[in-house]
Amino acid sequence: MVLISALVGLPIWYFSTSIHRARLPEEQIDQLNDNLLDRINYEVPIYLLDLPEALDGLLEETQTLIDSEVTKIEGIHAHIKLYKGRSDQVDKHSYKIKLITLGPESDDLEESVYISPKEDRLTKIFLSPEVISNGLVSDFITRVVTGDLLALNRNQGSHNSLLRIPYSPKCKVSLSFLEEGDDPIEWDIKPIVKKFEKYLSSVLGEYANFTVESQMGYYESLLDTANLEADQEEEGTLILKDTSTFIDYSEWGLDQDVEVIPSINLVVYVPNSDKKIRIENSVSNSFIVPQWGGIVIHNQEGKNDTLMSTKELAPIFDIFASQIFHLLGAPETPKSPFIRADIMTRSQCVENLVKSMDNLISLSKLTEQLPTIPIPEITLKEVDESMRLVNESISVIEGKEERWWKKANQLSAKALELSDKAFFQKDMVQQVYFPDEHKMAIYMPLLGPFGTIILLGVLRMVRESTSNRATKLRTKSEVN
Amino acid sequence: MSFNFETNHTADLYPNTQEAAHYDVFPKAIGSILQNTNARELHLRFGQGWYDADAWGKLLRNGLENGGTGVELWAVIEAESKDDAFVKWSQLTNSLSGLFCASLNFIDSSTTTSPVTIFQPDGSFLQKIQLKNDLYLLRGALPREPVCTENLTPFLKMLPTKGKAGISSLLTGRKVFNSEWSSMAVDVLTVCDSPNSCHYEIKQSLDLIKNIPHVLDKNRMPIPKPIPGDEMRCDETKKHDAYHCFPLPESNKLDFGLMDLFGRVIHGGALLADSPTRVCADIDTDSWELSVNSTAALTSSGLCYDLNTNQDYDFRLSTNDSTKIKPLEAPPIYASRSLSGYSQDSGGFRIDLLNPTNDDLNVVVFETFPWFVRLYLHTLTISVNDTTTYDVSDRVINSVVNEIIYNPAVDRKSPSHLELMTLIPANTKVKLSLDFDKAMLLYAEYPPDANHGFEIEPAVISIIDPITKEINYQMRTTTALLTLPTPDFSMPYNVIIITSTVMSLAFGSFFNLLTKKTVTEEEAEAVAEQSRLRRITKKLQELKQRIRGSKEAPQ
Fold first, then answer.
1. Low-confidence ranges of chain A (pLDDT < 50)
2. What sections of the protein cross the membrane (chain B) (predicted)?
């Protein structure tokens, strides 16, 4: 019987109760994580355009100044490398600085900076002869580059703000045109929405893939009027003091998104023509709902026709564009949206890498701490793939290609997605909630009686041996 | 009572991702679901209650927009392969489940069928456009799903007026679902005018059957109380005084408005629409009167009224004799399905079909059974006019059942799917019966209240036009409640305990055999003398004797 239970019972028991645990490459994960921050050493090239031969020394001087400035900043950040370039050779999407010397005849002798808001990412630095003669040119360029152009010391704060929508490589922008009344407004939105979409893909195309969707809403009455106060000065104007209860998500049909990808909701609300709503302390009459979207209240200022022209919509879309930047956590400066998007993409790429490594580290810690959870093969596959992508992304960063961040960001986003998948693997979590008490309850009927019998047997044995010893002692003493 | 809504939406079948999708009156949620799943047609039905065809006559719009009890969904999905279509289908059911707050996500491969003769797509758009892939028709139903307010709210929100204006402003869950029978339908079709311009057409409808005297009674007295003495109408031909009264039957006078039926009035017309909101009454004008309560001027044509202002409207109907109603149109077919048999392991279905018309009818009986109903097609018997019964092997049966389409079930994977194409002769009653075995389910497959039974989805009975092959009339039977043998759910634990007990008993005796030594009786006695228990009992005996002794002493 012992043989049967050992040869048949034990293997069956073992195989039916054991769980599959794939071996995660824990050491590799740790290693990659330890080296991660050192390896992410990215470079942002800046071209000084059409620099005369005589000023070669200026380039080196400025580079040393920038380097010393950059090392003061903590955390992962850009290493700025200055290059010389001719305006006809440099890629049109690269950062360019053009030095312009103000002639003594110009009226405005102040040195100033002009950063182009267009795609060319050109910065013009106007230098007065005074600065040049004092040899402060390199100092000035350094300040412009680290301070204004790449906003090195400021972008950390805004990136982690509460407003920010969690990053996703795909993102939906959902435009809603809502009106309070039933009098249909003729929205001329087609051309402007098209333009807006183009703008998004050209500016933010490298950061994430945006799709635009728009909808109309009618009969969207206001949820509560308690926060609306009549304005003392202007007849028929209501002032919105508290914006927190203004939006009625369920009634306005804003909660009907069934897709998985996150969406940024941008809403225009048009109150009935007999009243105006102004948001207190808001010039643009708009507000942002953290991690959700933005809303603009557009009053029909005594208009008679129900046509909403492209011209009237343009300022609303300007507000939308700035709201999107806020919601994505873009830095406040510089003014150029292209440069802001670049900064965002770069820091997002680093964040994705750090986050995916965090995920993998947590996963390996979790599996270490919970010996009862199974680790399916698919998790292992995802972990491997994610690590491969992290490595690839880092090598793209190190490759220092022109505008490398586009590719690196895409790879890192994929790595993050996979590491998330690996961490939240459904099959893994299933048995975590199978508590040990249940196992106890199953084994108790068997182990209880067995244990009792053995325990009593041992007790008896102990007692017998002590009494035996006592009798032996007694007999011994009697003999003596 | 029937509510009908229709909206259109222009969309590209193959959307260019660079182009923004724009939704005006068409619900965005539905639009994005259709785009994501490549569904070209979508039909959703919510039904509640039993339709009494004898009392209520023919179904509205020939029953083509009514559902059976529970939820029913069928869709035409464009996909590269059948597997691909199924992936899209699961995505569709999951999205719709979230949108309509219904457990549509429970439609999986074990409840999904591909009907062959009915539920076919309206292929008219195919003539205008060349599709890139094939179309697949998939259908699933959840007969157990209770239909309630949480399904009505999203239904109303899909309307451009969001239930705030037009006839939809009457609809509230509390009043809609206390009707005798209700059915909600959402149909989305693709319509193409030319290869480059296709649009979706959404049609929503809601049909109700209300018992008006009952509703009015309930409004008057939410809790039923006896009628007070002074309001009692006594039969004056019989004895009546302060203590005696033979009540007269209820008065045939009726006077009610929309306010009584729905607790609301119509909040103006839906002014967004191309054609104004229209309210029609289908009444016998000789004995019924229709009046309108509104401050707005009305344009009417016959018994239809166009609501084109945003004023409130209430319609009232009154009559002196509520028995005089318009004659009901009789349904072209009566059908019912019932379960037969009483044992735990087998049973049978019986479908009764009655053709009351003077024409022969081509009828398709469509049924799907869950895999645990193991159907035996060879047991199909048919009896005509309750006189003779024919087996499936009889030649005669071919004159009634022309064709049988049957996909047998695969355990836990797909349901059995049966389509019987029958020819029911004029004024004839046909009874079809089938036997089945009940399968045992796995322990974990039983629902929480397994003893309630398992709902079998309604059979769909359709009359097919013999020439055009179009469906002329469609009705559904009730759901059937099947009881399966249910185990005692504490059984696994009992088994564990019993085996453990047996094993520990065996272990105990083995253990004793191995560890105990044999002694002679004398030795045992000697040991027993020394045992603590013996000593204590001895002491107790001594004590007892001493007490007895002291008791005896005073005497």
1. 155-158
2. 491-514
Model ipTM? Answer: 0.72
| Extended beta strands in B260-391, E state | 266-267, 277-280, 288-294, 299-301, 304-307, 312-319, 334-340, 346-355, 361-369, 373-384, 388-391
Q: Are B219 and B199 members of one domain?
A: no
B29 touches chain A (CB under 8 A): yes
| 3-state SS class at A452 | helix
Whether A258 and B29 lie within 8 Å, measured CB to CB: yes
> For residue B119, is it left (φ>0), alpha (ψ between -120 and 50) or beta?
left
Contact B515 A461 (CB under 8 A): yes
What is the tally of helices (H) and strands (E) in chain B? 11, 26
CA distances from B4 to A213, B7, B96, B102, B283 (A): 28, 10, 21, 22, 19
- Put simply, the answer to whether A213 touches B157 (Cβ < 8 Å) is no
Where residue B371 sits, what CATH number does that domain have? 2.60.40.740
Domains and CATH numbers, chain A: 45-158 (3.30.379), 170-327 (no CATH)
Find the domain containing B497 and state its range: 491-552
Tell me if the bond preceding A184 is cis, omega within 30° of 0.
Answer: no
pLDDT tens over chain B, length 555 residues: 666 666 665 555 454 444 556 777 788 888 888 888 888 899 999 999 888 888 888 888 888 888 889 999 999 998 999 999 999 999 999 989 888 888 898 898 989 999 988 888 877 777 777 778 888 999 999 998 888 888 898 888 888 888 888 888 888 888 888 888 889 999 988 887 777 777 788 888 888 888 888 888 888 888 888 877 777 788 888 887 778 888 887 778 888 888 888 888 888 887 777 778 888 888 888 888 888 887 777 777 777 888 888 788 888 888 888 788 888 888 999 999 999 988 888 999 999 999 999 989 999 999 999 999 999 988 988 888 877 778 877 777 788 888 899 999 998 899 999 999 999 989 999 999 999 999 888 888 888 888 888 999 999 999 998 888 888 899 999 999 998 888 888 887 888 888 888 888 888 888 888 877 777 888 888 877 777 777 888 888 888 898 887 766 655
Cβ contacts of B32 on chain A, cutoff 8 Å: 213, 257-259
Domain assignment present for residue B393? The answer is: yes
Q: Is A256's CB within 8 Å of B164's CB?
A: no
Q: Are residues B180 and B315 in the same domain?
A: no
Pick from A182, A193, A457: CB nearest B22: A193
Order of strands, sheet of B388-391, starting from the edge strand that comes earlier in the sequence:
B334-340, B346-355, B428-438, B373-384, B388-391
Q: How many domains would you assign to chain B?
A: 4
Q: Smallest CA–CA separation between B310 and chain A, in Å?
A: 9
Q: Based on the fold, state whether residues B505 and B447 are members of the same structural domain.
A: no
Note whether B161 contacts A182, CB cutoff 8 Å.
Answer: yes
**Which residues of chain B does A211 touch, with a Cβ-Cβ cutoff of 8 Å?**
17, 20-21
Q: Which residues of A touch B490 (CB under 8 A)?
A: none
| Contact residues, chain A, for B29 at CB < 8 Å | 253, 256-258
Residue of A nearest to B16 (CA): A211
Mutate to test the interface with A, among B7, B24, B100 (most CBs of A within 10 A): B24
> B476 and B495: one domain?
no
CA–centroid distance for A436 within its chain: 38
Neighbour tally for A427: CB within 10 Å: 14
How close A91 comes to chain B (CA, Å)? Answer: 26
Q: Find the residue in B nearest to A186 (Cα).
A: B24
Structure tokens, B170: 């009457």
Length of chain A: 480
Say if residues B161 and A219 touch (Cβ distance below 8 Å).
yes
Q: Residue B485 contacts by C-beta under 8 Å, 6 or more apart in sequence?
A: B344, B345, B438, B440
Tell me which of B96, B157, B500, B523 to substitute to probe the interface with A (most A C-beta atoms closer than 10 Å): B500
